Model the fold of this input.
Amino acid sequence: NAGVTQTPKFQVLKTGQSMTLQCAQDMNHNSMYWYRQDPGMGLRLIYYSASEGTTDKGEVPNGYNVSRLNKREFSLRLESAAPSQTSVYFCASSGRGHFNQPQHFGDGTRLSIL
Amino acid sequence: TQLLEQSPQFLSIQEGENLTVYCNSSSVFSSLQWYRQEPGEGPVLLVTVVTGGEVKKLKRLTFQFGDARKDSSLHITAAQPGDTGLYLCAGHSGNTPLVFGKGTRLSVIA
Done:
């Protein structure tokens, strides 16, 4: 059971470089989410997609863009990376009824911006 | 903005001790979820509570949802090193995504 798969697991970028984080789920879930996790800050929602074809901003969307490519895939793009975006990024998905359903998380992408 | 405050932020105890961690808010939630996150992994759901006053047990873990559905607690009996991790609560209300607390980082020392 793959669940939620994130790639890459680790990445180091230089300030100003761009990058896309990939996420795919195999549970036929409608909703997908991108979070960042920083020490002492908990999980903060960047963007979410309640269903295929829709995306919405979360708590900290600035500096990011997303694409819900199809029902399985939800990517997060950093157009011009900044040191403040150094973080661990988690993708999650949830099923029918979306927001009150349990979220299933990937194992994260550890991103460092130099 | 709905906020969930978790306490304590850090907790270090000896194996065999009991502990309680708390998740509090000034807002009412229709349901509340508890997750555990181990190093290098994503959070994993432990339980969902939906009814005010509800108590759920998962082996040595007891979860309670406050009567007013504004708070929750997690009690661990006879903690073991395998309980070590970050415990996160997350609340749901209306048609908005889950709101996560900042977590309690538990370390159980053998």
